[in-house]
């Protein structure tokens, strides 16, 4: 009666062998998934690198076409050409050179490098050829106007280098940022802001209408009047505020989405435009409640020449990316990090790293070594939480583009608004039910 025991033991051994093989297969599948995820990450990184190289290639191709056009014009100026044709060609060349000077001035010897210069306060730089060409190109393009056309109103803001007035220009209400550059550095800041704003036309970027260059005192930016104040004041309250303004999550996400859309315009501009100082005090709100990117004094247009002359530690420490702090090469993904800091501010309604009680320099040291970045709040929407993880990646190439950021924020905002609508309906139904029960 004990004979059947052997087959049972054999069956148990067989089952153990099958279980062991299944475990091996599961382990192999897991390893395959991990390898696949790593390969996908590498593909994304290499794709981003290829996109960057393609943009650089396109910039060089445009430069080559411009040189070819100049060469053709020079060959056309033969000694036996008609005098009238020669004069017309000379005028065209002059205009083209002025336009090129305005577009490339920040990459010229006079205005290329970031950082301090040896300029003094004697304003001799006002006679530089690059500066004079910039003015000539501005007059020809129509955005350089006479200050006498502008009627200044009251001061509505003050900054490091000047003041902002409400004003009237050609019958319309505008804002005038009035600066008094006393050196080449300050003039370069003014020029860069003009150069960047003159190329941007977007609902979420402050619009430049004109500029005034009238040495020694009148250097003005004539822009749209954004009467809603800064995003910083909207989020934290004005000077002397004792309590935070009440802003719903959907309102704060909507502001984040506005800022992301403005930054997408900079990122997708050809060539790209770096803001380099994105923070709530540099975002303004118009009369309809729309947020717009402003203050382009540190902006750079990413031409091939500019890409090799970008300096580190440019901007504001609390919003600065690790690679900028470390003086490493950087691109638009550094603005992505700055946006992430602003996004956390909007989610928490707290200033960056305020719980650490450290100076901005102390914070920057920890950000640079990779041990610190802003943290999403515990109740953060899952889409936004995942987005922040990607934004604060130590590898800039792994950070999302602003196009992706916009899409994710749109989805999160839509979900938050739906949840708020359901909660409001339930609350109204509850109050109605209680009133009916009492009746």
TrEMBL record:
Domain Protein kinase: start-end pairs: 150-413
Residues annotated as binding ATP: 177
Keyword line: ATP-binding, Coiled coil, Kinase, Nucleotide-binding, Serine/threonine-protein kinase, Transferase
GO molecular function, one term: protein serine/threonine kinase activity
Presence of keyword Ribonucleoprotein: no
Coiled-coil features, chain-numbered ranges: 22-91
Family, similarity comment: Belongs to the protein kinase superfamily.
Protein name as it appears in the record: Protein kinase domain-containing protein
Organism: Chlorella vulgaris (Green alga)
